[in-house]
Amino acid sequence: MSRFKIKIVQISEIDLIDKNAHYMEQATFRQLVANIKRDGELSSVPFCIEKENGRYLAVSGNHRVQAAKMAGLTQIPVMYALEQDITHDEMRAIQLSHNSIKGQDDAEILKELLDEIKDTAMKEYAHISQEYLAEMERMDYTIEMPSNEIVPVTFMFIDTAKANMDKIFAQLDILTPRELENVTLLPKETLKRLNEVSAKVQDKYKIKAQVLSICKMIELVDYTLNNGDD
After folding, report:
1. CA–CA separation, 199 vs 133, rounded Å?
2. C-alpha closest to that of 47 among 101, 9, 74
3. What is the tens place of the pLDDT at every residue in 74-98?
4. Does residue 8 sit in helix, strand or coil?
5. Which segments of the chain belong to CATH 3.90.1530.10?
6. In this predicted model, what pLDDT tens digit does every residue of 186-226 receive, in sequence order?
7. At what angle do helices 26-39 and 62-70 cross, to 10 degrees?
8. What pTM, to 2 d.p., does this model score?
9. Mapping DSSP to helix (H, G, I), strand (E, B) and coil, where does residue 194 land?
């Protein structure tokens, strides 16, 4: 039986967690309240612990609990676990992971999705600012390659290698032109080394996205070459 369950809980029975590193700007919180008021319910649920005294502790989703209360809701659905079924370490790990594990936005696709929304009120509901889109679009990840003469090359493979190459080409054939633009073939050892160095750059300069760490690597190499360092 799963430890995690879902039920409808009175907001008055939910306590906010004592420490919360995740904060929300007032404008964002007001939009959250407006969205919940419009929907009349939550579209994503907080995670809580049901304590032995019958009350609930909001481990993640504290802002949603507060916003739901301000929107006039008296009860909301929550995902919960019993207090005796979860350790303090697990509670803190879940709390942090729900805020830290998230993906990155593709600016072009994000703008396409936003442009599909014609209703101004629903654009506000999405809460994607034009400033944020403009900032993402200003980020240039283009790497200029030297303009060399292109000459035809013939490759020869043993049977097993050809079979592997045919498999790769078959996988490439089903990709869209946009997906193909983002595909680069590298030897496994080179890719492994690239990932290792990229991880070190991400850690040293507190960079989350690998593509940004590669841009930083280019910047560092350029600086080293221009300053004559070995």
Report:
1. 27
2. 9
3. 999 999 999 999 999 999 999 999 9
4. strand
5. 5-100
6. 677 887 888 888 888 888 888 877 778 787 888 888 778 88
7. 60
8. 0.56
9. helix
